[in-house]
């Protein structure tokens, strides 16, 4: 594609001066107690505290650290969401991103934004911005999907380094340590690539107040999915959302024979 | 003088367990009867086997700070107000001294026996009877742990108007008896303003039932107010009706690094002007406090550099956007005025909790370093830190001593702590009575929220004039003619 030609001519596989696109999502704050909506089709979001998805904090932090090491030259932070997603973009700008992109959907419809739609939006943004690297959070804590990175990499035909807990820049390639079930796996990915950040990748910085104020002057471009030529119609339909079953109280028995009796009673023996 | 760098070199866990009687050698046991087997049998009949403990009593005998310790032989834990009444009535008749005890988190030695006083624990009176979700009122027993009460009322969208670091252990009854202050006085006012009703048992066993869920009730003398802050010397609180504020939806926290205490005061003034009604905590700490929690408890500062002072402001409101607008104005004004050199804002509840934990863990961190001489005083705001500097100057000849200041800036309440490796009467004599004299001279309070307990009882004269103290003694005699309720506490004994 045109993009690949552009990449090989200009970047010449040097590991410095990279441009990074980071995705962030506004979700219900991790510490808030979730309540299921009366219609059982979702959770209550009105009037509930929201913050940046914790894994996305790791994503931004990694980009900022790479910028401090001069590996990265520019950080663009993008978020797909309702008008309030701007706050999340501002937090990312305060942490050190250079400019923002807000792909806005009407308030109240953001629950319909699914990973496939988001991946398509990011593919369109990649086409527009031509970054060398895309860093996303491993998964959002509201849907726990862990799909957007993989879908995006597939759409772009780029290598992916998912569940990254260490990212190091080598000669023309990134070495990524991935957290997998059996332990840790090291892979090497050539650029351009998509990475998803895991919690142990880094310790995200606090947004300092002087930076929060500076961030107000940084630009956030606004657009909508239609202007990017993306159809975000949901392909999955949520049928039902319920609380997990209440844990039953246990029984304390005074001795082994009573234990045997109870086990027999309940048909376990 | 100890510097922040040297904090790590002081040996940790310098526990000082001293009998209340040895710390004050001139204090003699009162003319009370001695516990007999008949008494224990009576208690067992009233409260049951589960309610009488005669072994493993260290936990009841010693205070949280490990600075005072009595030697009670029995802990009685009633389950109902009737049992409390029967136990007290018996003790009054037998002239047995009694110490009512809640979560045992007090800081002035007020909730522990000095000699062999019987400990009356409220731990089994832990029922939350009723919550009125429309009025926002809760009715509960005195032995409910503050955290549990908070969790329960949260289910209805309410919060307790009181919050302090000891929330996981302290009882609401103890909070009332000591009239605890805590972090949110600046927002919700003093605890006594939220108490709508109370039930107490007098030393002779008589039950005074003043329970009410009414917001307004001007019918006669408000006797429950006497019990609030009476530190267990007038009777036992068994039930309370408490008014509850709404749980805030949007909680934000900002931490500022300041070069001087003057700058801290300026930050504070600006923040109150910009934030107004959404302010829910205004705290400050000095650099040694931050170093203590960093080094001893491993809690990292969110700011890159260390600063001489830190100012922490929390906001609580019902609308995130509205509150953020106010906070952003506040931050701009603070940096424009140049009264802070750096600062951070919490981007999530977790970050907010971490920032507050830095302030709340100062006491546990200092406790691990050595012996703590703790002073909880109210002072005119401009004089708050100069007291710390004066004490530091006076202590300069003691090599391993250091002094810190932190506290509820919004209430003009300073927590001055002096730390030495071990308790020493020499160190104590350098600090006291100077600190009380100085506070008295500045027309402050020698005990803003911790109470008098055992440790400060004899200094009551620095706080109240003789006429007032005399009236207090008269009232004590009215409620407790045999003087069995928490003797040696609150009122001067020496």
Q: What is the averaged pLDDT score of chain B?
A: 92
Spatially, the strands of the biggest sheet of chain B line up as 13-10-12-11-15-16-14
Please give the share of residues in helix of chain A: 25-40%
Quaternary structure type = heterodimer
Largest sheet of chain B: 7 strands, antiparallel
Strand content of chain B: 15-25%
Number of helices of chain A: 7
Helical/strand content category of chain A: alpha/beta
- Sheet-strand content of chain A, in percent, reads 25-35%
Q: Biggest interface, which chains?
A: A-B, 24 and 31 residues
- End-to-end C-alpha gap of chain B: 34 Å
What count of helical segments of chain B does DSSP give? Answer: 17
Name the poorly predicted regions of chain A. Answer: 4-13
The number of E-state strands of chain A comes to 12
Largest sheet of chain A: 9 strands, mixed
Low-confidence stretches of chain B: 1-16
Give the helix proportion of chain B (percent range): 25-40%
Gyration radius of chain B, in Å: 23 Å
- How does the overall form of chain A come out from the CA principal axes? globular
């Amino acid at each position: 594609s045109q993009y690949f030609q552009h990449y090989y001519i200009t970047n010449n596989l040097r590991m410095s001066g990279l441009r990074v696109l980071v995705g962030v999502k506004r979700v219900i704050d991790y510490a808030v107690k979730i309540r299921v909506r009366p219609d059982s089709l979702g959770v209550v979001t009105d009037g509930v505290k929201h913050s940046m998805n914790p894994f996305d904090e790791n994503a931004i932090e990694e980009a900022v650290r790479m910028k401090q090491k001069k590996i990265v030259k520019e950080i663009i932070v993008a978020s797909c969401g309702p008008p309030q997603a701007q706050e999340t973009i501002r937090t990312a700008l305060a942490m050190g991103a250079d400019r923002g992109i807000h792909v806005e959907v009407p308030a109240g419809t953001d629950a319909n934004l699914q990973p496939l739609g988001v991946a398509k939006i990011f593919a369109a943004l990649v086409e527009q911005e031509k970054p060398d690297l895309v860093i996303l959070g491993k998964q959002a804590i509201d849907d726990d999907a862990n799909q957007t990175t993989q879908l995006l990499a597939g759409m772009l035909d780029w290598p992916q380094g998912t569940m990254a807990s260490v990212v190091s820049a080598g000669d023309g390639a990134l070495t990524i340590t991935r957290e997998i079930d059996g332990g840790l796996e090291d892979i090497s990915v050539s650029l351009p690539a998509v990475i998803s950040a895991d919690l142990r990748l880094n310790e995200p910085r606090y947004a300092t107040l002087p930076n929060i104020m500076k961030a107000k002057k940084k630009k956030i471009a606004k657009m909508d999915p239609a202007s990017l030529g993306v159809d975000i119609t949901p392909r999955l339909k949520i049928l039902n959302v319920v609380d997990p079953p209440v844990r039953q109280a246990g029984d304390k028995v005074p001795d082994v024979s009573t234990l045997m009796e109870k086990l027999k009673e309940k048909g376990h023996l | 003088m100890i510097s922040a760098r040297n904090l790590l070199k002081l040996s940790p866990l310098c526990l000082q367990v001293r009998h209340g009687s040895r710390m004050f050698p001139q204090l003699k046991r009162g003319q009370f009867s001695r516990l007999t087997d008949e008494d224990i049998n009576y208690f067992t009949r009233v409260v049951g086997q589960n309610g009488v403990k005669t072994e493993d009593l260290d936990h009841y005998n010693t205070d949280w700070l490990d600075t005072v310790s009595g030697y009670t032989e029995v802990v009685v834990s009633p389950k109902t107000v009737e049992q409390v009444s029967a136990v007290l009535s018996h003790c009054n008749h037998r002239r047995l001294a009694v110490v009512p005890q809640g979560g045992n988190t007090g800081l002035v030695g007020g909730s522990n026996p000095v000699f062999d006083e019987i400990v009356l624990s409220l731990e089994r009176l832990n029922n939350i009877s009723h919550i009125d979700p429309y009025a926002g009122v809760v009715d509960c027993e005195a032995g409910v742990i503050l955290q549990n009460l908070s969790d329960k009322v949260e289910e209805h969208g309410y919060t307790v108007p009181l919050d302090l670091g000891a929330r996981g252990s302290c009882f609401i009854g103890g909070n009332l008896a000591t009239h605890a202050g805590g972090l949110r006085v600046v927002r919700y006012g003093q605890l006594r303003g939220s108490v709508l009703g109370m039930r107490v048992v007098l030393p002779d066993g008589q039950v005074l039932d003043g329970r009410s869920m009414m917001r307004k009730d001007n019918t006669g003398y408000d006797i429950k107010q006497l019990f609030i802050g009476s530190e267990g010397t007038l009777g036992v609180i068994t039930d309370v009706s408490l008014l509850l504020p709404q749980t805030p939806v949007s909680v934000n926290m900002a931490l500022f690094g300041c070069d001087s205490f003057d700058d801290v005061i300026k930050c504070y003034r600006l923040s109150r002007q910009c934030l107004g009604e959404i302010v829910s905590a205004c705290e400050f700490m000095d650099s040694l406090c931050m170093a203590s929690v960093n080094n001893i408890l491993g809690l990292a500062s969110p700011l890159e550099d260390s600063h001489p002072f830190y100012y922490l402001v929390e906001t609580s409101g019902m609308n995130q956007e509205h509150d953020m607008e106010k906070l952003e104005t506040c931050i701009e004004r603070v940096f424009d005025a140049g009264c802070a050199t750096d600062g951070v804002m919490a981007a999530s509840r977790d970050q907010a909790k971490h920032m507050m934990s830095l302030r709340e863990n100062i006491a546990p961190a200092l406790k691990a370093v050595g012996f703590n001489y703790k002073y909880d005083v109210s002072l005119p705001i401009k004089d708050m830190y100069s007291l710390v500097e004066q004490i530091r100057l006076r202590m300069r000849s003691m090599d391993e001593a250091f002094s810190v200041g932190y506290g509820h800036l919004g209430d003009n309440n300073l927590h001055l702590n002096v730390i030495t490796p071990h308790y020493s009467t020499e160190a104590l004599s350098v600090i006291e009575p100077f600190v009380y004299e100085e506070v008295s001279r500045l027309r402050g309070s020698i005990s803003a929220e911790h109470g008098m307990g055992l440790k400060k009882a004899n200094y009551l004269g620095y706080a109240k004039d003789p006429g007032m103290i005399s009236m207090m003694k008269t009232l004590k005699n009215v409620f407790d003619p045999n003087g069995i309720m928490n003797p040696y506490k609150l009122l001067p004994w020496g």
